[in-house]
Amino acid sequence: MSFAVLFTFFIVAASARHAGAGASSFVPLREAAKGIERVRIGAASPASLLANATSAYAKTMAQNYDLTTAENACKWGATEKSRGKFSFDECDAVRDFAHNHNMSFRGHNLCWGHYNPDWLKTLSPSEKRTALIEHIEAVVKHYGASPVAWDVVNEAISDKECDNPWCFKASDWYPDVPDFVYAAFETARKAAPRGVKLFYNDYSIANANSAKAKRVLNLVKNLTASRVIDGVGLQMHVSRGWENQNGNSDGLIKTMEQYRQLGIEVHITEMDVKNPEPRDDAAQTKTYVAALSACLNSTACTNFETWGWEDGHTWIGTSEHPLPFDKGFLPKKAALALSEALLNA
Ligand code: XIL
User: Fold this and answer.
1) Top mutation candidate among 76, 237, 315, 320 for ligand 1, by most atoms within 8 Å of CB
2) CA-based nearest residue to 289, from 333, 320, 259
3) Which terminal CB of the chain, N or C, has fewer other CB atoms within 10 Å?
4) What is the dihedral of CA 35, 71, 272, 112, to 10 degrees?
5) Long-range contacts: 168-175, Cβ < 8 Å, 24+?
6) What is the mean pLDDT of residues 46-52?
């Protein structure tokens, strides 16, 4: 970068902080969030896209985010493909990318009903329970103090009413291992160094008034009584306009407040906002800003993270244009408004 370009960048960045950012003076999210101690700004990424640290993808990501999560590389199906034989290379690569760029690393995940190796599904119930404990011990010990948090259990609770006490959904874990949630958290707590936060993570639980959110609260309360949990992850895979529906805006604020009262943290962990054709980027922007504002306004909320960050790489399909940056890595309206909200916080 020439001196003139660098100088212009600083002038633009400095004046944007005071005058409010316009399209021509985008302040990278990470820069805009400087000084906000409590909340990290994160994005998930596939390990493959981080392999070349000098790529535009890697550079833009490190410029904008101070936390990352491996999209798949730390899941069971990637780390223990054969029983007892651990392959940490890809998950390590995401952790190393984070640390090389002075970013936090978030561990995702230790126990889920998907993305598991085939061998796990063939075990007897008691063998499964043993495998769960051995997997969590091995992975948590390998990563030690490097993750700020682990999603210990992902998506355990049913979307619908059901007839088991906690309303667990049927999965690789339930009903085979009825105490899988407690076993997973207890094992993680014993294996993790102090300071590594243990999370329950799920979707459709961001509105405290919804039936699923109430089921999760019930489970989480029980876990807090045993001191094996430190936080709840709200995935927030939503569609534009989400904040205007079903009392979601107030419901999100209430969610943060109820977990604050329980003495635990909240992370927004996997946000994306579906925005299919005909696109309405203004509506998508409002949805992102509503979630970020709720997070900034609650002392419980310590992470605001999207699942990917640019429209070229997303699990829900590029035709949904769900992320804050476009596939050329340029900030969309959503990224501009998120930056402005961070600058104004
Ligand atoms: C998704 C990944 O993005 C996909 O690449 C993979 O095929 C399936 O998993 N909830 C979660 C994430 O907790 O781990 C999921 O990630 C998306 C939904």
Assistant:
1) 315
2) 333
3) N
4) -110
5) 169/113, 171/113, 171/114, 172/113, 172/116, 172/120, 172/121, 172/128, 173/111, 173/113, 173/128, 173/132, 174/113
6) 97
Spatial distance between the Cα atoms of 289 and 42, rounded to a whole number of angstroms: 15
What tokens does 143 get?
Answer: 């990563």
In whole angstroms, what is the distance from residue 116 CA to residue 119 CA? 8
For residue 281 the two structure tokens come to 């980027």
| E-strand stretches of 141-245 | 147-154, 197-202, 231-234, 237-239
Which atom belonging to ligand 1 lies closest to the Cα atom of 203?
10
**182 Cβ closer than 6 Å to some ligand 1 atom:** no
| Residue 310 β-bridge partners | 325
Establish whether residue 154 lines the binding site of ligand 1, counting it when its CB lies within 6 angstroms of any ligand atom.
yes
Q: Which two tokens stand for residue 161?
A: 């009413």
pLDDT tens per residue, range 204-250:
999 999 999 999 999 999 999 999 999 999 999 999 999 999 999 99
Instruction: Look at the pTM and tell me if it is higher than 0.85.
Output: yes
Identify whether 270 is a catalytic site residue: yes
Q: Is the CB of 46 under 6 A from ligand 1?
A: no
Distance between CA 293 and CA 290 in Å, rounded?
5
Nearest CA to ligand 1 atom 12: 71
